[in-house]
Amino acid sequence: MKLYQQNEIPDGDTGVSWFDLHRIYSSCPAKWRFEERDAAENPAITEHSAILNPEEFSRRYVREPSKDDFENCLSSDADIQQWIKSRGIKGYSGKKYDELVEMVDMTGEAPFIYRRELEKFAEKNKGKKIVPAKDYDRVMQMRDVLFANNSFAERIEKSFNDILIVGEINGLLIHVKIDCIDDAGNVIDYVGCADANPDAFKMQAIRGGYYLKQALVHDMLSMIWSGEPEIQILAQERAYPYIPVLFDISKKHLEIGRVQYNAAIEIMKKCQAADAWPTYALGSQSVELPIPEYFARQYGVEL
Q: How far apart are CA 114 and CA 1, in angstroms?
């Protein structure tokens, strides 16, 4: 078991992630193995960087200009055509963007053409992650709300952030990332959500694999850190007013999570060894269609 601090490069393979285990456990091996991964960056990565590592966020991310930032902005081909028409120029009908821009340039004027300015902006910021203005502004507002709470701000600012642990559990190489950990080994996992109300967030925790993840974090950290880690999830709503709620993870959560990750590890090991990735039927030719209990009761059928 080895711990890597922020920006440290792991030695060699890091194995599967907690999310890989969650996916293979909560869906089926075939779906995890063969599903197409979205190449677009997950909004959660942007949120984590902005809140946990503000300096790195400033270096790596930049806000994309919004057309609403500018007056008299030509943001569509129709806008450009209307601008050309207002100059008494004909022949713009049916022309594509490049041809329309050429007609604009021939006038000697320089109106603000949004698409062209975006192209200039992208060229100027090569190597940085360009975040749509709406998303960037939302993340900044989330950060402001979170850091207005002195208790949350102090915990995050005084912690070690983005810690990676790599090691074997039950013969499978696994890595898990810790958002925040303090000198005492206590952990905060930051999560963006639609609803931080405990009655609503409990379902996101189940569907999102948070039990499995926190059990892995606890158990892997315990192997290299003396003491008993306290683990909490800091959930923050992604819609105004961006309410944050801190949830305690109990021994009962960890007990359930261990059952999940141990089962997922065995599934993963068997699939890797046989290079076979069963579907939902788990190797059978068919599976009985489940009948919900409430539906059976409507018809007086006992299951």
A: 51
Residues counted in the chain: 303
Bridge partner residues of 176 (DSSP): 165
pLDDT tens per residue, range 85-142: 999 999 999 899 999 999 999 999 999 999 999 999 999 999 999 999 999 999 999 9
Cα separation, 196 vs 242, in Å, equals: 9
Options 3.90.320.10, 3.10.20.90, 3.40.350.10, 3.30.2130.10; CATH for 2-42+147-273 is 3.90.320.10
Apex CA 59: angle with CA 154 and CA 140, to 5°? Answer: 50
b or e along 123-150 (b: 16 or more beta carbons within 10 Å of the residue's beta carbon)? eeeeeeebbeeeebebbeebbebbeeee
Q: What is the CA radius of gyration of the chain?
A: 26
List the chain domain ranges: 2-42+147-273, 65-131
Say which residue the tokens 């709620």 belong to.
Answer: 245
Q: Please, is 91 exposed, middle or buried when counting C-beta atoms within 10 Å of its C-beta (0-12, 13-18, 19+)? A: exposed
Q: Which residues of the chain have pLDDT under 70?
A: 39-41
CA distance 206 to 260: 11
Flag whether the pTM goes above 0.70. Answer: yes
Q: Nearest 5°: CA angle at 212, between 285 and 176?
A: 110
